[in-house]
C-alpha cells in the first residue's frame, strides 16, 4: 500500500510539473524572445493586406502592433491559409491569430478565444445595376461567398456563433446556387462583371463591401438588410491559459481607452468596437 501511495505521489508530481511547464509556454517564449509571430491574412483589405511596398497594413495589422507595443515586444506576421489559421494545433509556429475570426462552437474545440475586439455586420452586395431591392429578390439566385468563412456557414444555414448575448441568426434567403471563392475579393471580381453574369449577389462583411465600393467596384449594399452581426476575436493556441488571459486583458484595455474605436474608425469609417 505504501508503495502504491508513493507511486501515486510521484505521478502527481510529474503531472503537476508538466502542467506548470505548459501553463506559461507561449507567454514565456514571447517574453524571452521579446518578439511574437501573428498569423493573419495577406489579401483581405482593409483588414490586412500587402500594400504597394509589399508591407503588411490594415486594421488587423494595427491591432497586432498595438498588442505587441503593450507587451513590449516586436511583432512579425505569417499568412497561413484560413483553415490553418483557425484550426489550432499551431505547434508554436504562431503566438497569436489576428485575422477577424468569428467565434463558433466548432472553433472553440480547437482554439482559444482571447477576446472580442470588434463586431462586423454582414451585408448583401449586388451589382449597381441590379434590380434587387430586398433579400426576397435574391431567392433562387446565384450567391457568392468566401469559402471556410461564416458567410459560407450562413448561406448553408449552419452558422453557430459562440458568444453570449447575441440574438439567434435568422435565415431569410433561399439561394438557387452557392459559389465559393478562396479569397475575400474574388466574389466581388465576379460580381463586378454585371448583374447575373456570374453572380447575383455576394454576402460579405460590411467593411469589405465598403472597401470594394471605395476602390471603384460597381456594386452596392442592400440597405437595411444585414444578414447577421458577428463578433470577431483574437485567437490563440490551446496550450497556455496565462497567455490567453494576458492578451485578453490588453484587448479589454484597448477597448476601454478608445484605441479599438479609433482603429475601426480609421480603417472602416465608423466605430465597430462597441459591445
Question: How does this model look, in words?
Answer:
The strands form 2 sheets. An 8-stranded mixed sheet has the order 5-1-6-11-7-10-8-9, sandwiched between helices. Helix content is 36%, strand content 27%. The model is unreliable at 1-22 (pLDDT under 50). The protein is α/β, with parallel strands linked by helices and 275 residues long.
In short:
By secondary structure, the protein is α/β, with parallel strands linked by helices.
Structural class: alpha/beta
Q: Proportion of β residues?
A: 25-35%
Mean pLDDT: 90
Q: Helix share of residues?
A: 25-40%
What best-fitting shape do the alpha-carbon axes yield?
Answer: globular
Question: Count the strands?
Answer: 11
The low-confidence parts are 1-22
User: How many helices does DSSP assign?
Assistant: 10
InterPro entries: Solute-binding_3/MltF_N
Keywords: Plasmid, Signal
Organism: Shinella oryzae
Main location: periplasm
Amino acid at each position: 500500500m505504501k508503495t502504491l501511495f508513493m507511486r501515486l505521489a510521484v505521478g502527481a508530481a510529474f503531472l503537476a510539473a508538466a502542467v506548470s511547464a505548459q501553463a506559461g509556454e507561449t507567454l514565456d517564449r514571447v517574453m524571452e524572445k521579446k518578439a511574437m509571430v501573428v498569423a493573419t491574412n495577406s489579401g483581405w483589405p482593409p483588414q490586412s493586406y500587402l500594400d504597394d511596398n509589399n508591407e503588411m497594413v490594415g486594421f488587423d495589422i494595427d491591432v497586432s502592433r498595438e498588442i505587441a507595443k503593450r507587451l513590449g515586444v516586436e511583432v512579425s506576421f505569417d499568412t497561413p491559409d484560413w483553415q490553418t489559421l483557425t484550426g489550432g494545433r499551431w505547434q508554436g509556429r504562431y503566438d497569436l491569430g489576428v485575422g477577424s475570426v468569428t467565434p463558433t462552437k466548432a472553433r472553440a474545440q480547437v482554439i482559444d478565444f482571447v477576446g472580442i475586439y470588434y463586431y462586423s455586420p454582414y451585408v448583401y452586395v449586388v451589382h449597381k445595376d441590379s434590380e434587387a431591392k430586398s433579400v426576397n429578390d435574391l431567392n433562387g439566385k446565384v450567391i457568392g461567398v468566401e469559402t471556410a468563412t461564416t458567410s459560407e456557414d450562413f448561406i448553408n444555414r449552419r452558422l453557430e456563433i459562440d458568444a453570449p448575448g447575441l440574438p439567434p441568426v435568422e435565415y431569410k434567403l433561399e439561394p438557387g446556387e452557392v459559389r465559393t471563392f478562396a479569397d475575400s475579393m474574388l466574389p466581388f471580381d465576379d460580381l463586378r462583371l454585371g448583374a447575373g453574369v456570374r453572380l447575383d449577389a455576394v454576402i460579405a462583411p460590411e467593411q469589405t463591401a465598403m472597401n470594394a465600393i471605395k476602390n471603384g467596384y460597381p456594386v452596392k449594399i442592400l440597405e437595411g438588410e444585414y444578414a447577421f452581426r458577428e463578433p470577431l476575436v483574437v485567437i490563440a493556441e490551446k496550450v497556455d491559459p496565462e497567455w490567453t488571459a494576458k492578451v485578453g486583458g490588453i484587448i479589454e484595455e484597448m477597448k476601454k481607452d478608445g484605441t479599438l474605436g479609433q482603429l475601426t474608425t480609421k480603417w472602416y469609417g465608423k466605430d465597430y468596437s462597441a459591445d
